[in-house]
């Protein structure tokens, strides 16, 4: 019976330390422990053999340890606090009509009821905590906005676009063709923003549309097509020499990879080693994965030479002149010319890739602030709680 008492005391201490339980839940759990302990003691006292005593003791200990109360009352109370706070927030929102407030409150009540149901059905404390967290997130996600917010957002877009177009027209550094092209781009961005505003379903989405539009206007300083950057061709051109191997002797994937000057963000997927039983120039096929997930193929030249004499042996990865040709992806045969001046720093060249296929609008503002943040746009952004920052523009 001493073992039963020890098990009961340990379980009672565990219940007292459980911060997820309310006082009522703790009391109920302790009552279960006491019941299990009493039943175990009675069974032990009634036992007539040692085997029966041992069985009663084991059964009693198991019953006590099985008391694992799940705290739900605190979780339910926390959810209610979140709900009440959100309802009060909706009531104070002066941009909402009566109908819009009613719709928002309905959404809050729906999220609250779903959370309560999930908590009540939870069988473990972990499930309760998860249901509580999801319920709180769902309630807080109800951020209604009214027609007033939509109209103000559209007005901000129109004002910012008009100001940008005016600055483009006044820019003496642009030709008539460049101005026309830039204005078309502004109009395109404006229409995209207005459409996105109509599709917005939350205030967060509305704010994101505005921030994106204002950022695009500020960043696009001139409309023109920049040259594309072919990273596959760059990696191919940056191969450092030839892998030289004696006929019939083995080469490793490491020998091939050592010739690649790869950025850290590029991963080697596979290396197909060539046949080294025939004299002459051949290629190892290397498949790479780029940072965006795209797979490309490059070819590392391998020179198969006759066996060296013992006194003139060289390392099989000795540096050599760069290949005059490399295989294309389609034929896997040499087609791309390489020269010695292609050994440029990947970090420098990668900066060119960031400019690939981008279009920009004239940077017509002066000073350190974004010109499009005129009085109308700033007033609307302030009312929506937006904080926008911009890069300093270059002096023309």
UniProtKB/TrEMBL annotation:
Signal peptide: none annotated. Residues 309-323 have a biased composition (Basic and acidic residues). Residues 327-364 have a biased composition (Polar residues). PROSITE patterns: GRAM_POS_ANCHORING. Residues 361-396 form the Gram-positive cocci surface proteins LPxTG domain. InterPro entries: DUF1542 (IPR011439), LPXTG_anchor (IPR019931), Rib (IPR059115). Coiled coil: none annotated. Residues 309-364 are annotated as: Disordered. Pfam families: DUF1542, Gram_pos_anchor, Rib. Keywords: Cell wall, Peptidoglycan-anchor, Secreted, Signal. The keyword S-adenosyl-L-methionine does not apply. This is Rib/alpha/Esp surface antigen. It comes from Granulicatella elegans ATCC 700633.
């Amino acid at each position: 019976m001493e073992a039963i008492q020890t098990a009961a005391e340990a379980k009672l201490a565990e219940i007292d330390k459980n911060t997820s339980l309310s006082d009522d839940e703790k009391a109920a759990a302790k009552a279960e422990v006491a019941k299990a302990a009493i039943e175990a003691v009675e069974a032990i006292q009634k036992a007539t053999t040692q085997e029966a005593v041992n069985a009663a003791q084991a059964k009693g200990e198991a019953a006590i340890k099985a008391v694992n109360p799940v705290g739900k009352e605190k979780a339910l109370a926390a959810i209610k606090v979140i709900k009440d706070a959100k309802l009060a927030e909706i009531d104070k929102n002066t941009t909402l009509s009566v109908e819009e407030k009613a719709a928002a409150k309905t959404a809050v009540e729906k999220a609250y009821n779903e959370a309560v149901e999930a908590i009540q059905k939870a069988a473990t404390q972990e499930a309760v905590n998860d249901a509580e967290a999801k319920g709180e997130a769902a309630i807080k996600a109800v951020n209604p906005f009214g027609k007033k917010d939509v109209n103000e957002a559209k007005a901000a877009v129109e004002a910012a676009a008009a100001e940008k177009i005016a600055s483009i027209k006044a820019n003496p550094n642009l030709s008539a063709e460049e101005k026309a092209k830039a204005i078309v781009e502004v109009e395109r961005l404006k229409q995209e923003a207005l459409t996105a505003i109509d599709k917005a379903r939350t205030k967060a989405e509305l704010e994101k549309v505005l921030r994106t539009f204002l950022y695009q206007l500020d960043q696009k300083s001139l409309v023109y097509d920049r040259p594309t950057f072919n990273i596959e061709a760059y990696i191919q051109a940056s191969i450092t020499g030839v892998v030289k191997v004696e006929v019939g002797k083995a080469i490793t994937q490491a020998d091939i990879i050592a010739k690649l000057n790869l950025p850290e963000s590029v991963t080697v997927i596979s290396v197909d080693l060539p046949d080294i039983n025939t004299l002459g120039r051949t290629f190892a096929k290397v498949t790479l994965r780029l940072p965006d997930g795209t797979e490309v193929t490059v070819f590392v030249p391998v020179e198969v030479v006759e066996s060296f004499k013992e006194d003139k042996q060289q390392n099989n990865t000795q540096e050599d002149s760069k290949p005059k040709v490399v295989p294309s992806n389609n034929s896997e045969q040499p087609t791309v010319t390489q020269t010695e001046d292609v050994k440029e720093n990947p970090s420098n060249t990668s900066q060119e890739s960031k400019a690939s296929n981008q279009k920009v609008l004239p940077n017509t503002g002066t000073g350190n602030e974004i010109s499009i943040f005129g009085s109308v746009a700033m007033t609307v952004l302030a009312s929506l709680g937006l904080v926008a920052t911009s890069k300093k523009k270059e002096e023309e």
